[in-house]
Specification:
Elements: E1 7-13, H1 17-28, E2 33-36, H2 63-76, E3 80-82, E4 88-90, E5 96-99, E6 104-112, E7 116-118, E8 134-135, H3 138-141, E9 149-153, H4 157-167, E10 172-176, H5 186-193, E11 198-201, E12 204-211, E13 215-222, E14 228-232, E15 235-238, E16 242-244, E17 274-276, H6 288-308
Parallel strand pairs: 1-2, 1-6, 2-3, 6-17, 8-15, 9-10, 9-15, 10-11
Antiparallel strand pairs: 4-5, 5-6, 7-16, 12-13, 13-14
Helix pairs in contact: 1-2, 1-6, 4-5
Bound molecules: NADP nicotinamide-adenine-dinucleotide phosphate.
Length: 309
């Protein structure tokens, strides 16, 4: 396959809030901008039922709706989207290449905005049971468990917001956490305690998924007492953090030991013309608003880089 003749000013990989904000700022500054997204706009935000901590939406906003609005904003200024999965990136030269099954795109700058995906527990049959009782997304799959009993594993923001969402749909919820306190903000914790159908299993870990053709329960061990119990449940929502989706750039840009792209608040990576925005960047707070902020900075830095060439 021959590379496309046209060399873009800015190529963005990933259509979450970081990617689309970079596209908005880049296109609005007059750069030629193409955003490559493998599935649908929004990234993880796109699968969030209610976003209530993004400024400007006093009643909250559905994550997918917000994603479509971000896309529209960027496209209003001329940014283009191609729904193509990137199979390889060549980032070290002055002209960077992105390979997809249909094209080889060329660009002077690249914004890495591939985000992250949920971490697995690493239990036997976890992969087989995905979609048959094992889920990583309460807002995507919660409705399948209406009136049923489910467990949530984890103690961070995702576990607690999943818990609140599922407490309104399901009959009974077990929240299983390896420590004796949650990491989420207090008001959300209180709301979860007050939901009335949530039982907390502290200092506990899931040691096995019980199943026939689909999940039927969990084996849970209390780490303090050593006591083991089997909980019957129809589904388990695993919310134990994120893994960065930086594989396309690994070996080219510098990454941390845990796989995040190393870039400061200016989003510059160690490679000239390559910027990292959003959840795949090493940073202290991963939120929609900080992803959007990164996107704006990355576009400004890309513009500065192009001006200085
Ligand atoms: P997180 O904050 O990293 O929390 C992960 C939780 O899973 C922690 O409680 C951790 O326990 C536990 N955990 C990690 N590995 C485990 C394992 N192998 N087995 C059992 N438990 C394990 O992840 P997150 O909740 O997905 O949040 C990710 C980011 O998104 C955060 O920055 C969060 O603030 C943000 N977020 C924000 C919102 C919101 O504001 N609306 C909603 C969702 C997510 P320990 O506590 O012991 O480490």
């Amino acid at each position: 396959m021959e590379p496309e003749k046209n060399i873009l000013d800015m190529l963005i990989v990933g259509g979450g809030p970081a990617g689309y904000t970079a596209a908005l700022y880049g296109a609005r500054a007059g750069l030629s901008v193409l955003l490559l997204e493998k599935l649908a706009p929004g990234g993880q935000m796109g699968t969030t039922d209610m976003v209530d901590n993004y400024p400007g939406f006093p009643k909250g906003v559905n994550g997918f709706d917000l994603a479509m609005q971000m896309k529209e904003c960027a496209e209003r200024f001329g940014a283009k989207t191609a729904l193509e999965e990137v199979s390889a990136l060549e980032l070290t030269g002055e002209v960077k290449l992105a390979h997809t099954p249909k094209h080889i795109y060329q660009a002077r700058t690249v914004v890495l905005a591939m985000g992250s995906h949920p971490r697995e527990l690493g239990l036997e049959r976890e992969g087989d049971l995905r979609g048959r009782g094992v889920s990583y997304c309460a807002t995507c799959d919660g409705m399948f468990y209406r009136g049923k009993t489910v467990a949530i594993v984890g103690g961070g923001n995702t576990a607690v917001s999943d818990g609140l969402y599922l407490s309104r749909l399901c009959d009974k919820i077990y929240l299983i956490h390896r420590r004796d306190k949650l990491r989420a903000p207090l008001p959300q914790q209180k709301a979860l305690e007050q939901a009335g159908n949530v039982e907390f299993l502290w200092n506990s870990e899931v040691t096995a998924l019980l199943s026939g053709d689909r999940l039927s329960g969990l084996r849970v061990r209390n780490k303090k007492t050593g006591e083991v119990q089997e909980l019957a449940c129809d589904g388990v929502f695993i919310a134990v953090g994120q893994v960065p989706d930086a594989q396309l750039a690994v070996g080219q840009v510098a990454c941390s030991e845990d796989g995040y792209v190393l870039a400061g608040e200016d989003t510059r990576t160690n490679l000239p013309g390559v910027f990292a925005a959003g959840d795949l960047r090493k940073k202290p707070l991963r939120q929609i608003v900080t992803a959007a902020s990164d996107g704006a900075v990355a576009a400004a830095m890309a513009q500065e880089y192009l001006d200085g060439r």
